[in-house]
């Protein structure tokens, strides 16, 4: 059973790492915010990874019932997370804005750093950067207002 505990720890740590990696391409560190949607996506990846890894290493994990439990839990986590990411049922005003700030930040990064040569595309990218910065600022102010009860 020690091997199964190690397997569970490996999947849990990998899922946390995957969640963290979803922020690698934000424009600036201050744009990193907690995001339920990114959590759901990390859980989807972690549960899929559990199935793939168990399948490849089945010869190391020989307890049939434990394997069935892992596969069942992974399927439930996957399905539940897909439902949560698609429905956004637990995402409210501030959590939506906290999720959108890193999303907008990624648009800034890709728009500013892409090797754009067509003047029309460069103009579009510049307008996107301006809009995303303005919207991030507005969301930060709204989050602050809502949290202060205004």
3D structure, described in words:
By secondary structure, the protein is an all-alpha fold. It has one domain. About 75% of the residues lie in helices and about 0% in strands. The protein has helices spanning about 1-20, 35-55, 65-85, 95-115, 120-145. Helix 1 crosses helix 2 and helix 2 runs antiparallel to helix 3. The N and C termini lie far apart (about 55 Å).
**General shape:** elongated
Strand content is: under 5%
The end-to-end span amounts to 53 Å
What summary fits the major beta sheet? none
Helical segment tally? 5
Roughly what is the average pLDDT, rounded to an integer?
96
Structural class by sheet pairing and helices: mainly alpha
Characteristics:
5 helices; DUF305 domain-containing protein; transmembrane helix; Ferritin-like; membrane; transmembrane; single chain; mainly alpha; 150 residues
